[in-house]
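Suppose you are handed a protein chain with no further information: no name, no annotation, nothing but its sequence. What can you learn? This example shows the usual starting point.
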Amino acid sequence: MKLENLFDKERIAREFSRHAGTYDKYASLQNSLAKELVNSVRALKISPKTILDIGTGTGEVAFLLQNVFRDAKITGCDIAPGMIEKAKQKNRSKNITFEVCDAEIMPYKDKTIDLVVSNTTYQWVENLYRAFAEANRVLKNSGHFVFITFGPDSLNELKRAYRLTVDEKAEYLHEYMTVSEIGTILENAGFKVVSLSSRSVRSVYDNFREMQKTIKNIGALNASTKLPKGLRSKKRIKDFEKNYEAHYSLGDNIYATYEVIEAVCVKA
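A reasonable first move is to predict its three-dimensional structure. Written in structure tokens, the prediction is:
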């Protein structure tokens, strides 16, 4: 089982920071999933006093949780300084703090957090076991860990169109962990998995360029140290666009599918 991807963390932080100003406008899927994540937390019927939001971005999950748990102390952390700065600008609560840190090496003390959450972040983590072990470390005994991430069937349309354009073995995106792999890593990191599910969510765009614009303006990218080199000419890029729109149209629009993985866990 693969535990690690070779990621360019500095590039990830830089790209998300660069697009912090446009993130909220274009992250409609991520913001929708943030609401689902908070609903899953509410269903647990818990009353956490301390909450950690890993990969907080511009703070959407932290702000939603503050509306539910008004007396809780919430910390939002993210590897991208630009995202943290944007979250701080939006913050109006004395109970929420934001700070820069890496999910794999967190500065928080052992057994100090009641609830750890994360929304669409762990697909960007280099070593998933190390990140889950860190979440486990900071949680109090029997604390809850609830997160949403993307699985390997995300953006399959984009991958297939790229292969049609370049060659059948070409890789356009970095690898995501499967739901089965995530479950095993969670257990190895010291969690009891209460629920773990996978489903498909379809996003619809006006056209290929609008989809690419959306992805770019939230800071998403291929995080691998092995970047694809197949789109080095204007003709290739145009062919890529044509192949996508020819195969993945929905009326006058196009679509992209995301595999959404959600986990609810308890520190064992």
